[in-house]
Amino acid sequence: METSPPGAAFKPDVAISEAAERFFELLKTFATAASGAQPEWSSLATPLATQFEQWLRLSQSAGPWFAAAAGVPAAGTAAGTAAAGFPPAAWSFASLPLGAAAASAGEPQRALELFSRLGQLQAQLAAHWSEVANTAAQRFVARVGGTSAAPGSVDQALKLYELWVDCAEEAYAATVHRSDFARLQADIANTSAALLVEQRRYAETLTRAFGLPTRGEVDALAAQLRELRRELAGRADAPAASAATGRERTARPATERTDARGARGPKRTRPKDASRASPRKRVRRPRR
Amino acid sequence: MKASDAERSTPFPELTLRIADTLSRLARARDVAVGCSLKRAVWKCGKTTLYHYLPLPATGRVSRHTRPLLICFALVNRPYVLDLQPDRSLVRRLLEAGLSVYLIDWGDPDDADRLLDLEEYIERHLGGSVRHILESHESEALDLLGVCQGGVLSLCYSALNPHQVANLITLTTPVDFHTPDNLLSKWVRGLDSTLIGASGNVPGEMLNGLFLALMPFRLAQHKYVRLLTSNPDQRTVEDFVRMEKWIFDSPPQAAAALAQFVRWFYQDNRLVHGTLELAGRRVLLGDVRSPVLNLYALEDHIVPPAAAAALRHFVGSPDYSECAVATGHIGMYVSRAAGAEVPGRIISWLKKRG
């Protein structure tokens, strides 16, 4: 059964169909346990835990943060399994025929280290999912144990399903609120982000080798542009503010008219029904 | 999944048919439209657009309360959830009350905007919108409605520019980011914000994944099974699809702004500690002196009620009111219960302070 990771190009209709399939799978599991004269609910623990763990691995993969940005395939998918021991395709830059001069040898090494670290962290995450799934299944078996009959109607089956959902979310919450889990999530996110930064650093080296403008250069230009814009806004607003102080207007504290960056305050204080004011009627600005 | 396949594989054929029926309704609802009220763009700054909603023809009157109302939505979601469809639209209820409603749409930041930071969003984009509206209305101050993360931006703006905000309404707005029940905060606390800033814009899908991961089984499985098994009519299915479209239609996040938001609010909790600075000025909630109405949801898993209710301890306004609604985070914008309560509260509160 395929599962779409919730984040990546999510399509509700696909997700809903998948949810329906998983729901039927669950109902079949319930039905199997309840097929005898006396339901054997304890036999549900293993299949329920297995199904839930599989779903958690597929849907949560490397955690929500940065997995996509880092180009890391979801754990549990074919690509993810393949990637567990090898760098992802995005890292095949080294095979470009640009020679050793294009990049220092240290960069791919650092990336491989990060990738290996990410694999270790994902293994730790998988252990958490296993714990969540087993706890959920045990909770469910314990709570449903008092039920003496198999679900005979749709309503009874849905009640059983609701109970399973409660147990699953409770077990999940008990784990994900823990500080060790939070630390792991952060580690995964930070390692993925570091991998992405490393990947881009390597790409920058290649870009430079091709004589193309690099991201760093573009960012520097953008920062320069931003500073110029601020300076321009400051210069444009300074005369307006000083002219405004000389104008006849209701006295107000100076801080009201300009903010730290010289943004203009209201030009008139005439109290009127604003809804009747023409939006086209602009307040004339003082000439410089 | 086809009905015939499911019928063979389930012990409840009746349920199978019910689900197959819902799936076919879902297929018909796939292209359902979102957004309903007419609006026009009146100002732009970078990717940000300020919209002014056209008055409803049916309203046929000018309200006594004529001060413009600006809605500042979160950066992480799209604002059309406030105007999803005629019977689920906060905007429409406000227009019906005769208010002059403006809305900021932050747009889709691209790589050219990766250095866009919170100072620019607050001072240039939000501030520019405010100044444009004030000039257009020849008014000294407007009413500001900040939603979720947009409420945080609105609080910052109100603290820095108290005379431009006559009344402030915060809706599902986190203030104390370190309350014990805040799972999102626990996860984000250990992130390296410098790395976030350096790794470029963050795709909206990734944030969606993060929000779903807070309650994955309920949000990515149980919710759908409930719909499938509840025998919904076509209209209910269309309402559901509209919501799903909105939930998964999230804009990318400018790297610098997101990194700052994580660091300043989720990690350092600067609003509460009074240590936030923007453009060289200290942002103190005590400087928010306009009347404040704080609305929050009691079952909110993204902004826990305690995180929002904390505003009462820090805001400087002598006229502070709050209202807790028994719904979830998104339910606050679109649920029938909140739809009956939230717009009415806002309108009557504003009118009392007109």
Summarize the structure.
The complex is a heterodimer of chains A (288) and B (354). Chain A has 288 residues and is mainly α.
Task: Describe, in plain words, how this protein is organized in 3D.
The complex is a heterodimer of chains A (288) and B (354). Chain A has 288 residues and is an all-alpha fold. Chain A folds into two domains: 12-210, no CATH class; 213-247. Chain A has helices at 12-33, 45-60, 78-83, 106-144, 154-176, 179-209, 215-246, 254-257. Chain A is elongated and about 85 Å long. The N and C termini of chain A lie far apart (70 Å). By secondary structure, chain B is α/β, with parallel strands linked by helices. An eight-stranded mixed beta sheet of chain B has the order 1-2-6-3-7-8-11-12, sandwiched between helices. A two-stranded antiparallel ribbon of chain B has the order 4-5. In chain B, a hairpin with a 2-residue loop joins strand 9 (276-278) and strand 10. Chain B is globular and about 65 Å long. The interface between A and B is large, with 83 and 84 residues.
